[in-house]
């Protein structure tokens, strides 16, 4: 990876919020749906223009239009966080949005094609290239876990039995952890990619059995990087969480009842707790951060806040039919960071 420069803003800010817009699909085009987004990439403003009235834009750390490449997102969003994780800090990248807006495309992408690789496979290349460049004095141990949270239940995507529910425990010496979660040590891009594939296959299998559970579950791929300097015996440990969140669509739209309604309320709960946690961290005033109110935030507690770096990427569809959901996504993402809205958008 050629350009690993970390921009100054990423250095000083611990929480950054981004928006990515996917292109209209062929089907949406064929059905005559309109592209209703207005984007000002200079000011990083975005607005939904449904009825031609002048819409109020939202401002973010950066807005990525539909032609933004995977590598651009990697450089802007992930490089600062991955670099910090190599130095012993924790970091988390979340993909948020309605199902079908590009969360999995952004996090995983198509990693058989170099240009279409998402953040997770680009992270693999980045980490192993930095490790191979490090001086002989420093040795690294890279460990991976991959879990799914569905209906507030935790499952290990790398286990031989990915259907088994795992318990969350807490110990004063190690903090919050998942009992029996498998951790694998990896020493190459190939071996870490193999684990990603294995976990994804388990996700898909469970999804086929349970009617697309993957869009209704959070997947957390965690890379722990331990580095030890032989000359001063100093050890640092950095943890990087790459999170493909459950679809944020509201239950009313899918007309859910029974089990689906329970799923939907669990998703709503965990996404709203996540929003509350991040916005409390941005605020910096609140002494109580509500980590314990969902499994997702409880598990990520040691990677949210303090010196940790957090990025949220809110995905939106450009189509008129998705107006309501896109509006909810932009409001959620804006609330997370309390970025001042601008009165006007110039595009
Ligand atoms: P989600 O994980 O949010 O449900 P996906 O990542 O599966 O959504 O994306 C839905 C579809 O849109 C996929 O076919 C994906 O390839 C396509 N897509 C998403 N984002 C982009 C993008 N930025 N450029 C091109 N195609 C995209
Ligand atoms: Mg997905």
Automatic annotation (TrEMBL):
ATP binds at residues 97-104. Residues 14-339 form the Kinesin motor domain. Its main location: cytoplasm. It is found in: Cytoplasm, Cytoskeleton. One of its GO terms (cellular component) is microtubule. One of its GO terms (molecular function) is ATP binding. The keyword ATP-binding applies. The keyword rRNA-binding does not apply. GO terms for biological process: microtubule-based movement; mitotic cell cycle. Keywords: ATP-binding, Coiled coil, Cytoplasm, Cytoskeleton, Microtubule, Motor protein, Nucleotide-binding. Transmembrane segments: none annotated. Belongs to the TRAFAC class myosin-kinesin ATPase superfamily. Kinesin family. This is Kinesin-like protein.
């Amino acid at each position: 990876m050629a350009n690993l420069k970390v921009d100054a803003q990423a250095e000083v800010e611990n929480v950054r919020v981004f928006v990515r817009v996917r292109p209209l699909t062929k089907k949406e085009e064929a059905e005559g749906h309109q592209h209703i987004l207005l984007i000002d990439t200079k000011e990083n403003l975005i607005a939904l223009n449904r009825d031609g009235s002048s819409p109020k834009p939202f401002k973010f750390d950066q807005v990525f239009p539909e032609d933004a490449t995977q590598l651009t997102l990697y450089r802007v969003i992930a490089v600062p966080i991955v670099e910090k994780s190599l130095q012993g800090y924790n970091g988390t990248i979340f993909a948020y949005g309605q199902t079908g807006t590009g969360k999995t495309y952004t996090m995983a992408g198509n990693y058989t094609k170099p240009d279409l690789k998402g953040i997770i496979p680009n992270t693999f290349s980045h980490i192993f290239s930095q490790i191979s460049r490090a001086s002989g004095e420093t040795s690294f141990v890279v460990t991976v876990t991959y879990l799914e949270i569905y209906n507030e239940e935790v499952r290990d995507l790398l286990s031989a039995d990915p259907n088994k529910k795992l318990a969350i425990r807490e110990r004063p010496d190690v903090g919050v952890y998942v009992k029996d979660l498998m951790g694998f040590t990896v020493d190459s891009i190939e071996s870490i990619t193999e684990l990603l594939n294995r976990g994804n296959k388990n996700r898909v299998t469970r999804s086929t059995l349970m009617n697309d559970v993957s869009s209704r579950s959070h997947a957390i791929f965690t890379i722990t990087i331990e580095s030890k300097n032989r000359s001063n015996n100093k050890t640092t440990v950095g943890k990087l969480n790459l999170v493909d969140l459950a679809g944020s669509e509201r239950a009313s739209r899918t007309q859910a009842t029974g089990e689906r309604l329970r799923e939907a309320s669990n998703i709503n709960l965990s996404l709203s707790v996540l929003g509350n946690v991040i916005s409390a961290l941005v605020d910096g005033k609140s002494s109580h951060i509500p980590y314990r109110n969902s499994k997702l935030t409880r598990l990520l507690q040691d990677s949210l806040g303090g010196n940790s770096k957090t990025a949220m990427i809110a995905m939106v569809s450009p189509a008129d039919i998705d107006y309501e959901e896109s509006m909810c996504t932009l409001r959620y993402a804006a609330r997370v960071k309390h970025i001042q809205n601008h009165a006007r958008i110039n595009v």
